[in-house]
Amino acid sequence: MGEISETVVKDYRVRIRMYRQGLGDCFLLSFPNKQGAEKHVMIDCGVVLGTDKPADRMKEVAESLHTATGKKIDVLVITHEHWDHLSGFTPNQAQKELGDITFGELWLAWTEDEKNDLANALRAEREMKKAAAAATKKKLAELGPKAEKRLNRLAALMEFNGEGDGNADGGEGKGGTAGALQFLKAKVRNRKILKPGQVPITIPGVDGVRIYVMGPPEDKSKLHKTNPGKGHGYGFSEGISLSAAFAAALGVGDPERAQPFAQSFRKGMSELKADSSYKKPENAWRNIDEDWLGVGERLALQLDSDTNNTSLVLAFEFIDTEEVLLFVGDAQAGNWMSWDDYKWNVKDKNDDKQEVTAADLLARTIFYKVGHHGSHNATLREKGLERMTHRNLVAMMPVDEIVAHEKKGWMHMPLPELCERLNEKCVAFIRSDKDKVEGTNPETIEKPTSLYFDHFIK
Fold it and tell me: What backbone phi and psi angles, to 5 degrees, belong to 308?
Protein backbone atom coordinates (compact mmCIF):
# COMPACT_ATOMS: atom_id res chain seq x y z
CA MET A 1 0.00 0.00 0.00
CA GLY A 2 1.14 3.56 -0.67
CA GLU A 3 3.27 2.49 -3.68
CA ILE A 4 2.48 4.20 -6.97
CA SER A 5 3.70 3.81 -10.52
CA GLU A 6 6.32 6.07 -12.15
CA THR A 7 3.68 7.38 -14.54
CA VAL A 8 1.58 8.55 -11.60
CA VAL A 9 4.63 10.19 -9.99
CA LYS A 10 5.03 12.28 -13.14
CA ASP A 11 1.32 12.93 -13.41
CA TYR A 12 0.70 15.05 -10.31
CA ARG A 13 2.51 16.85 -7.50
CA VAL A 14 -0.24 16.45 -4.92
CA ARG A 15 -3.68 14.96 -4.67
CA ILE A 16 -6.01 16.87 -2.34
CA ARG A 17 -8.93 14.78 -1.11
CA MET A 18 -11.88 16.43 0.64
CA TYR A 19 -14.12 13.94 2.40
CA ARG A 20 -17.88 14.39 2.23
CA GLN A 21 -18.89 13.06 5.64
CA GLY A 22 -21.16 16.04 6.35
CA LEU A 23 -20.69 19.37 8.11
CA GLY A 24 -17.09 18.97 9.22
CA ASP A 25 -13.50 18.85 8.00
CA CYS A 26 -11.35 15.95 6.85
CA PHE A 27 -8.65 16.40 4.19
CA LEU A 28 -5.94 14.08 2.91
CA LEU A 29 -2.95 15.46 0.98
CA SER A 30 -0.87 12.85 -0.87
CA PHE A 31 2.55 13.86 -2.21
CA PRO A 32 4.38 11.44 -4.55
CA ASN A 33 8.14 11.31 -4.03
CA LYS A 34 11.09 10.24 -6.18
CA GLN A 35 11.14 6.77 -4.64
CA GLY A 36 7.72 5.99 -6.07
CA ALA A 37 5.79 6.24 -2.81
CA GLU A 38 3.20 8.67 -1.52
CA LYS A 39 3.64 10.69 1.65
CA HIS A 40 0.40 11.65 3.35
CA VAL A 41 -0.75 14.63 5.39
CA MET A 42 -4.16 14.41 7.04
CA ILE A 43 -5.87 17.57 8.29
CA ASP A 44 -8.66 17.12 10.87
CA CYS A 45 -11.37 14.46 10.98
CA GLY A 46 -14.81 15.24 12.37
CA VAL A 47 -18.48 15.95 11.77
CA VAL A 48 -20.90 18.20 13.64
CA LEU A 49 -23.16 16.84 16.38
CA GLY A 50 -26.62 16.05 15.07
CA THR A 51 -25.37 14.40 11.88
CA ASP A 52 -27.32 11.29 10.87
CA LYS A 53 -25.42 8.09 11.70
CA PRO A 54 -22.13 9.86 12.45
CA ALA A 55 -20.33 6.66 13.48
CA ASP A 56 -21.16 4.97 10.18
CA ARG A 57 -19.96 7.97 8.21
CA MET A 58 -16.70 8.38 10.10
CA LYS A 59 -15.93 4.66 9.94
CA GLU A 60 -16.41 4.82 6.19
CA VAL A 61 -13.93 7.70 6.07
CA ALA A 62 -11.48 5.70 8.18
CA GLU A 63 -11.73 2.69 5.87
CA SER A 64 -11.09 4.94 2.88
CA LEU A 65 -8.03 6.34 4.64
CA HIS A 66 -6.80 2.77 5.24
CA THR A 67 -7.04 2.04 1.52
CA ALA A 68 -5.48 5.31 0.39
CA THR A 69 -2.55 5.29 2.81
CA GLY A 70 -1.89 1.66 3.69
CA LYS A 71 -2.65 2.67 7.30
CA LYS A 72 0.39 4.96 7.41
CA ILE A 73 0.02 8.74 7.51
CA ASP A 74 3.18 10.79 7.84
CA VAL A 75 1.66 13.91 9.42
CA LEU A 76 -1.65 14.46 11.23
CA VAL A 77 -2.64 18.12 11.62
CA ILE A 78 -5.32 19.13 14.13
CA THR A 79 -6.24 22.74 13.48
CA HIS A 80 -8.30 23.43 16.62
CA GLU A 81 -10.36 21.82 19.35
CA HIS A 82 -13.86 21.64 17.85
CA TRP A 83 -16.12 18.63 17.46
CA ASP A 84 -16.55 18.97 13.70
CA HIS A 85 -12.75 18.70 13.32
CA LEU A 86 -12.05 16.01 15.95
CA SER A 87 -15.09 13.78 16.48
CA GLY A 88 -13.76 10.92 14.35
CA PHE A 89 -11.20 10.24 17.09
CA THR A 90 -13.84 9.61 19.78
CA PRO A 91 -14.85 6.13 21.03
CA ASN A 92 -18.43 6.22 19.69
CA GLN A 93 -17.35 7.18 16.19
CA ALA A 94 -14.15 5.86 14.57
CA GLN A 95 -11.49 5.95 17.27
CA LYS A 96 -10.77 2.24 16.87
CA GLU A 97 -10.54 2.39 13.06
CA LEU A 98 -8.48 5.59 13.00
CA GLY A 99 -6.39 4.16 15.83
CA ASP A 100 -5.27 1.41 13.43
CA ILE A 101 -3.42 4.07 11.42
CA THR A 102 0.19 4.86 12.27
CA PHE A 103 0.72 8.62 12.40
CA GLY A 104 4.35 9.69 12.06
CA GLU A 105 3.92 13.18 13.50
CA LEU A 106 1.18 15.21 15.16
CA TRP A 107 1.17 18.96 14.40
CA LEU A 108 -0.63 21.29 16.82
CA ALA A 109 -0.82 25.05 17.32
CA TRP A 110 1.10 26.73 20.15
CA THR A 111 -2.24 27.03 21.95
CA GLU A 112 -1.86 23.33 22.84
CA ASP A 113 1.56 23.87 24.47
CA GLU A 114 1.15 23.03 28.15
CA LYS A 115 4.32 25.02 28.97
CA ASN A 116 3.07 28.23 27.35
CA ASP A 117 1.64 30.73 29.86
CA LEU A 118 -0.72 32.40 27.39
CA ALA A 119 -1.92 29.02 26.13
CA ASN A 120 -2.63 27.93 29.70
CA ALA A 121 -4.47 31.20 30.39
CA LEU A 122 -6.58 30.73 27.26
CA ARG A 123 -7.42 27.17 28.27
CA ALA A 124 -8.44 28.33 31.75
CA GLU A 125 -10.61 31.05 30.22
CA ARG A 126 -12.18 28.54 27.83
CA GLU A 127 -12.95 26.14 30.67
CA MET A 128 -14.50 28.97 32.68
CA LYS A 129 -16.72 29.93 29.75
CA LYS A 130 -17.67 26.29 29.17
CA ALA A 131 -18.61 25.95 32.82
CA ALA A 132 -20.64 29.16 32.67
CA ALA A 133 -22.43 28.03 29.51
CA ALA A 134 -23.19 24.65 31.12
CA ALA A 135 -24.55 26.40 34.22
CA THR A 136 -26.69 28.63 32.00
CA LYS A 137 -28.01 25.59 30.18
CA LYS A 138 -28.97 23.99 33.49
CA LYS A 139 -30.77 27.11 34.72
CA LEU A 140 -32.66 27.52 31.44
CA ALA A 141 -33.75 23.87 31.62
CA GLU A 142 -35.15 24.51 35.10
CA LEU A 143 -37.35 27.30 33.69
CA GLY A 144 -39.28 24.81 31.54
CA PRO A 145 -41.19 25.55 28.31
CA LYS A 146 -40.85 29.35 28.52
CA ALA A 147 -37.08 29.05 28.05
CA GLU A 148 -37.11 26.19 25.54
CA LYS A 149 -36.05 28.24 22.49
CA ARG A 150 -33.17 29.88 24.32
CA LEU A 151 -32.12 26.52 25.72
CA ASN A 152 -32.10 24.90 22.28
CA ARG A 153 -30.00 27.69 20.76
CA LEU A 154 -27.50 27.51 23.60
CA ALA A 155 -27.30 23.72 23.40
CA ALA A 156 -26.64 23.87 19.64
CA LEU A 157 -23.70 26.24 20.16
CA MET A 158 -22.23 24.08 22.92
CA GLU A 159 -22.16 21.14 20.53
CA PHE A 160 -18.98 22.47 18.89
CA ASN A 161 -17.15 21.22 21.98
CA GLY A 162 -18.83 17.84 21.81
CA GLU A 163 -21.15 18.76 24.65
CA GLY A 164 -24.43 17.69 23.16
CA ASP A 165 -27.08 15.30 24.33
CA GLY A 166 -26.56 12.66 21.65
CA ASN A 167 -24.59 9.83 23.24
CA ALA A 168 -24.47 8.09 19.88
CA ASP A 169 -22.21 10.93 18.76
CA GLY A 170 -19.93 10.45 21.73
CA GLY A 171 -20.85 13.85 23.05
CA GLU A 172 -21.50 14.82 26.62
CA GLY A 173 -20.03 12.38 29.11
CA LYS A 174 -17.66 10.87 26.53
CA GLY A 175 -14.78 13.28 26.93
CA GLY A 176 -15.79 15.63 24.12
CA THR A 177 -13.11 17.37 22.10
CA ALA A 178 -10.65 17.36 24.99
CA GLY A 179 -10.92 13.56 25.20
CA ALA A 180 -10.31 13.17 21.46
CA LEU A 181 -7.23 15.38 21.61
CA GLN A 182 -5.93 13.53 24.65
CA PHE A 183 -6.28 10.24 22.76
CA LEU A 184 -4.15 11.62 19.92
CA LYS A 185 -1.49 13.04 22.22
CA ALA A 186 -1.15 9.65 23.88
CA LYS A 187 -1.05 7.81 20.54
CA VAL A 188 1.39 10.04 18.65
CA ARG A 189 4.53 10.70 20.66
CA ASN A 190 6.30 12.67 17.94
CA ARG A 191 4.58 16.05 18.22
CA LYS A 192 5.38 19.47 16.79
CA ILE A 193 4.06 22.63 18.45
CA LEU A 194 3.88 25.33 15.78
CA LYS A 195 4.07 29.11 16.10
CA PRO A 196 3.30 31.76 13.47
CA GLY A 197 6.32 33.30 11.79
CA GLN A 198 8.65 30.43 12.68
CA VAL A 199 11.14 29.01 10.19
CA PRO A 200 9.17 27.07 7.55
CA ILE A 201 8.94 23.32 8.17
CA THR A 202 8.90 20.29 5.87
CA ILE A 203 7.03 17.02 5.47
CA PRO A 204 9.23 13.97 6.18
CA GLY A 205 10.19 12.34 2.86
CA VAL A 206 8.81 15.12 0.64
CA ASP A 207 11.27 17.27 -1.32
CA GLY A 208 10.52 20.69 -2.74
CA VAL A 209 7.67 21.59 -0.37
CA ARG A 210 7.88 23.85 2.66
CA ILE A 211 5.16 24.95 5.05
CA TYR A 212 4.69 28.43 6.49
CA VAL A 213 2.90 28.70 9.84
CA MET A 214 0.67 31.80 9.59
CA GLY A 215 -1.62 31.48 12.63
CA PRO A 216 -2.96 31.50 15.25
CA PRO A 217 -1.58 34.83 16.52
CA GLU A 218 0.20 35.07 19.86
CA ASP A 219 -1.77 38.21 20.63
CA LYS A 220 -4.80 37.78 22.89
CA SER A 221 -6.59 40.83 21.47
CA LYS A 222 -6.38 39.37 17.95
CA LEU A 223 -7.48 35.95 19.15
CA HIS A 224 -10.61 37.59 20.57
CA LYS A 225 -11.35 39.56 17.39
CA THR A 226 -13.74 37.14 15.76
CA ASN A 227 -15.87 39.21 13.38
CA PRO A 228 -14.51 41.08 10.34
CA GLY A 229 -16.32 44.35 10.96
CA LYS A 230 -17.98 46.52 8.35
CA GLY A 231 -16.25 46.43 4.98
CA HIS A 232 -13.79 43.65 5.81
CA GLY A 233 -15.91 40.60 5.07
CA TYR A 234 -18.58 39.54 2.58
CA GLY A 235 -22.22 40.49 3.22
CA PHE A 236 -23.63 39.80 6.68
CA SER A 237 -21.63 40.83 9.74
CA GLU A 238 -22.48 41.34 13.38
CA GLY A 239 -20.62 42.35 16.50
CA ILE A 240 -20.49 40.34 19.72
CA SER A 241 -19.03 41.59 22.99
CA LEU A 242 -19.43 39.79 26.31
CA SER A 243 -17.49 40.12 29.52
CA ALA A 244 -16.17 37.10 31.35
CA ALA A 245 -18.05 38.52 34.36
CA PHE A 246 -21.07 36.71 32.94
CA ALA A 247 -19.58 33.54 34.38
CA ALA A 248 -19.48 35.08 37.83
CA ALA A 249 -23.15 35.95 37.50
CA LEU A 250 -23.83 32.24 37.34
CA GLY A 251 -21.87 31.55 40.47
CA VAL A 252 -18.97 29.85 38.72
CA GLY A 253 -16.27 29.92 41.40
CA ASP A 254 -18.40 31.89 43.89
CA PRO A 255 -21.98 30.58 44.11
CA GLU A 256 -22.62 32.72 47.20
CA ARG A 257 -22.35 35.85 45.04
CA ALA A 258 -24.00 34.73 41.83
CA GLN A 259 -25.08 38.11 40.50
CA PRO A 260 -24.49 39.87 37.15
CA PHE A 261 -22.64 42.83 38.69
CA ALA A 262 -19.07 43.94 39.30
CA GLN A 263 -17.50 42.37 42.40
CA SER A 264 -17.79 45.59 44.43
CA PHE A 265 -21.57 45.66 43.98
CA ARG A 266 -22.31 42.01 44.78
CA LYS A 267 -23.63 40.72 48.08
CA GLY A 268 -23.64 37.23 49.47
CA MET A 269 -27.06 35.65 49.52
CA SER A 270 -26.71 35.06 53.24
CA GLU A 271 -26.31 38.83 53.70
CA LEU A 272 -29.67 39.59 52.16
CA LYS A 273 -32.22 40.01 54.91
CA ALA A 274 -35.77 38.78 54.65
CA ASP A 275 -37.03 42.36 54.83
CA SER A 276 -34.55 43.72 52.27
CA SER A 277 -35.70 45.38 49.07
CA TYR A 278 -34.71 42.26 47.14
CA LYS A 279 -37.06 40.07 49.19
CA LYS A 280 -40.12 42.32 49.21
CA PRO A 281 -42.91 40.86 47.03
CA GLU A 282 -43.84 44.28 45.67
CA ASN A 283 -40.34 44.57 44.18
CA ALA A 284 -40.37 41.19 42.45
CA TRP A 285 -41.03 42.83 39.09
CA ARG A 286 -37.59 44.46 39.28
CA ASN A 287 -35.68 41.19 39.64
CA ILE A 288 -33.54 40.01 36.74
CA ASP A 289 -32.83 36.56 38.15
CA GLU A 290 -34.09 34.85 34.98
CA ASP A 291 -34.32 37.44 32.21
CA TRP A 292 -30.59 38.01 31.79
CA LEU A 293 -30.04 34.29 31.09
CA GLY A 294 -31.23 35.00 27.57
CA VAL A 295 -27.76 36.26 26.66
CA GLY A 296 -26.28 32.87 27.55
CA GLU A 297 -26.09 31.90 23.91
CA ARG A 298 -23.80 34.88 23.30
CA LEU A 299 -21.38 33.41 25.81
CA ALA A 300 -21.39 30.09 23.97
CA LEU A 301 -21.06 31.85 20.63
CA GLN A 302 -18.06 33.80 21.91
CA LEU A 303 -16.52 30.57 23.18
CA ASP A 304 -17.08 28.99 19.77
CA SER A 305 -15.58 31.96 17.93
CA ASP A 306 -12.56 32.29 20.22
CA THR A 307 -11.76 28.60 19.67
CA ASN A 308 -12.11 29.01 15.90
CA ASN A 309 -9.59 31.83 16.06
CA THR A 310 -7.00 29.49 17.58
CA SER A 311 -6.98 27.56 14.29
CA LEU A 312 -3.59 26.47 13.00
CA VAL A 313 -3.12 28.10 9.58
CA LEU A 314 -0.67 26.48 7.16
CA ALA A 315 0.53 27.52 3.70
CA PHE A 316 2.14 24.67 1.71
CA GLU A 317 4.53 26.08 -0.91
CA PHE A 318 6.00 24.25 -3.91
CA ILE A 319 9.47 25.82 -3.99
CA ASP A 320 10.08 25.40 -7.73
CA THR A 321 6.81 27.05 -8.86
CA GLU A 322 6.14 29.14 -5.71
CA GLU A 323 2.52 27.96 -5.81
CA VAL A 324 0.71 27.72 -2.47
CA LEU A 325 -1.98 25.53 -0.89
CA LEU A 326 -3.74 27.41 1.94
CA PHE A 327 -5.45 25.60 4.82
CA VAL A 328 -6.98 27.94 7.41
CA GLY A 329 -9.08 25.67 9.65
CA ASP A 330 -11.90 27.85 10.95
CA ALA A 331 -9.79 30.99 11.41
CA GLN A 332 -11.77 34.16 11.92
CA ALA A 333 -10.99 37.88 11.59
CA GLY A 334 -8.22 38.39 14.16
CA ASN A 335 -6.33 35.36 12.92
CA TRP A 336 -6.46 36.55 9.29
CA MET A 337 -5.51 40.11 10.24
CA SER A 338 -2.42 38.93 12.14
CA TRP A 339 -0.75 37.32 9.11
CA ASP A 340 0.77 40.63 7.99
CA ASP A 341 2.73 40.71 11.26
CA TYR A 342 5.13 38.05 9.97
CA LYS A 343 7.90 37.85 7.39
CA TRP A 344 9.93 34.81 6.43
CA ASN A 345 13.50 34.84 5.09
CA VAL A 346 14.00 31.81 2.85
CA LYS A 347 15.88 30.73 -0.26
CA ASP A 348 14.17 30.43 -3.61
CA LYS A 349 14.66 27.66 -6.18
CA ASN A 350 17.90 29.33 -7.33
CA ASP A 351 19.23 29.38 -3.77
CA ASP A 352 18.89 33.17 -3.61
CA LYS A 353 17.62 34.84 -0.45
CA GLN A 354 14.12 36.24 -0.50
CA GLU A 355 11.68 37.74 1.98
CA VAL A 356 8.19 36.25 1.95
CA THR A 357 5.08 37.98 3.33
CA ALA A 358 1.48 36.90 3.81
CA ALA A 359 0.52 39.02 0.81
CA ASP A 360 3.02 37.06 -1.30
CA LEU A 361 1.63 33.71 -0.15
CA LEU A 362 -1.97 34.73 -0.79
CA ALA A 363 -1.13 36.08 -4.26
CA ARG A 364 0.45 32.72 -5.13
CA THR A 365 -2.35 30.59 -3.68
CA ILE A 366 -3.71 28.02 -6.14
CA PHE A 367 -5.78 26.10 -3.59
CA TYR A 368 -7.87 27.51 -0.76
CA LYS A 369 -9.64 25.41 1.85
CA VAL A 370 -12.55 27.73 2.63
CA GLY A 371 -12.59 28.63 6.31
CA HIS A 372 -15.37 27.81 8.77
CA HIS A 373 -17.64 26.13 6.21
CA GLY A 374 -18.17 29.38 4.31
CA SER A 375 -19.65 31.28 7.25
CA HIS A 376 -19.93 35.07 7.55
CA ASN A 377 -17.17 35.43 10.14
CA ALA A 378 -14.33 33.87 8.16
CA THR A 379 -12.64 34.59 4.80
CA LEU A 380 -11.71 38.25 4.94
CA ARG A 381 -12.24 40.27 1.80
CA GLU A 382 -9.43 42.78 1.02
CA LYS A 383 -7.02 41.14 3.49
CA GLY A 384 -7.97 37.68 2.31
CA LEU A 385 -9.76 36.36 -0.75
CA GLU A 386 -9.18 39.46 -2.89
CA ARG A 387 -5.45 38.93 -2.42
CA MET A 388 -5.75 35.47 -4.01
CA THR A 389 -5.17 36.55 -7.58
CA HIS A 390 -3.64 33.42 -9.16
CA ARG A 391 -5.35 32.47 -12.41
CA ASN A 392 -5.53 28.79 -11.37
CA LEU A 393 -7.20 29.29 -7.98
CA VAL A 394 -9.35 26.35 -6.80
CA ALA A 395 -11.44 26.44 -3.61
CA MET A 396 -12.94 23.56 -1.64
CA MET A 397 -15.63 24.21 0.96
CA PRO A 398 -16.59 21.45 3.45
CA VAL A 399 -20.23 22.24 4.24
CA ASP A 400 -23.70 20.76 4.50
CA GLU A 401 -26.28 23.46 3.90
CA ILE A 402 -29.26 21.28 4.85
CA VAL A 403 -27.77 20.44 8.25
CA ALA A 404 -26.65 24.04 8.79
CA HIS A 405 -30.01 25.58 7.86
CA GLU A 406 -32.65 23.02 8.77
CA LYS A 407 -31.08 21.27 11.77
CA LYS A 408 -28.94 24.00 13.28
CA GLY A 409 -30.60 27.22 12.14
CA TRP A 410 -27.27 28.67 10.93
CA MET A 411 -28.74 30.54 7.99
CA HIS A 412 -25.48 32.28 7.02
CA MET A 413 -23.57 29.02 6.53
CA PRO A 414 -22.54 29.12 3.78
CA LEU A 415 -22.74 32.84 3.09
CA PRO A 416 -24.32 33.43 -0.36
CA GLU A 417 -22.17 36.49 -1.09
CA LEU A 418 -18.99 34.50 -0.39
CA CYS A 419 -20.11 31.59 -2.57
CA GLU A 420 -20.89 34.02 -5.38
CA ARG A 421 -17.43 35.60 -5.17
CA LEU A 422 -15.68 32.22 -5.05
CA ASN A 423 -17.63 31.18 -8.12
CA GLU A 424 -16.38 34.30 -9.93
CA LYS A 425 -12.73 34.07 -8.86
CA CYS A 426 -12.01 30.34 -9.00
CA VAL A 427 -11.45 28.04 -11.97
CA ALA A 428 -13.24 25.50 -9.80
CA PHE A 429 -15.33 26.02 -6.66
CA ILE A 430 -16.24 22.74 -4.97
CA ARG A 431 -18.71 22.27 -2.13
CA SER A 432 -18.77 18.95 -0.33
CA ASP A 433 -22.59 18.94 -0.26
CA LYS A 434 -22.99 19.28 -4.05
CA ASP A 435 -21.93 17.02 -6.92
CA LYS A 436 -21.85 19.92 -9.36
CA VAL A 437 -18.59 21.87 -9.52
CA GLU A 438 -18.88 25.61 -10.20
CA GLY A 439 -16.31 28.21 -11.24
CA THR A 440 -14.92 29.47 -14.55
CA ASN A 441 -13.53 26.09 -15.65
CA PRO A 442 -15.09 23.34 -13.51
CA GLU A 443 -14.05 20.57 -15.93
CA THR A 444 -10.58 20.63 -14.33
CA ILE A 445 -11.91 18.63 -11.35
CA GLU A 446 -12.32 14.86 -11.22
CA LYS A 447 -15.85 13.47 -10.91
CA PRO A 448 -16.64 12.96 -7.21
CA THR A 449 -17.46 9.73 -5.44
CA SER A 450 -20.17 9.67 -2.80
CA LEU A 451 -17.44 9.85 -0.15
CA TYR A 452 -14.92 12.39 -1.44
CA PHE A 453 -13.76 14.90 -4.05
CA ASP A 454 -10.22 14.60 -5.46
CA HIS A 455 -8.26 17.51 -6.89
CA PHE A 456 -4.96 16.69 -8.62
CA ILE A 457 -2.37 19.46 -8.95
CA LYS A 458 -0.08 18.56 -11.83
Answer: -55, -40
Q: Are 422 and 385 in contact (CB under 8 A)?
A: yes
* Listed residue (302, 304, 288) closest to 249, CA to CA: 288
DSSP state of 373: G
Binning pLDDT at 50, 70 and 90, where does residue 455 land?
Answer: very high
Query: Rounded to whole angstroms, how far apart are CA atoms 349 and 365?
Result: 17
Q: Would strands 209-215 and 313-318 be described as parallel, antiparallel, or unpaired?
A: antiparallel
Q: How many CB atoms lie within 10 A of CB 32?
A: 21
Express each pLDDT in 14-26 by its tens digit: 999 999 999 999 9
The sheet with strand 313-318 has its strands ordered as 209-215, 313-318, 324-327, 365-369, 394-397, 428-431
> Whole-prediction pTM value?
0.82
What gap in Å lies between CA 197 and CA 338, rounded to an integer? Answer: 10
Q: What is the pLDDT of residues 244-283, one digit of tens each?
A: 444 444 444 444 445 554 454 555 656 655 556 656 666 6
Q: Which domains are seen in the chain, by residue range?
A: 11-118+167-238+304-457 (3.60.15.10), 119-166+239-303 (no CATH)
97 contacts: CB under 8 Å, gap ≥ 6: 58, 59, 62, 63, 66
Q: Name the helix (H) or strand (E) containing 84.
A: helix 83-86
DSSP conformational letter for 415: -
DSSP 8-state assignment for residue 200: P
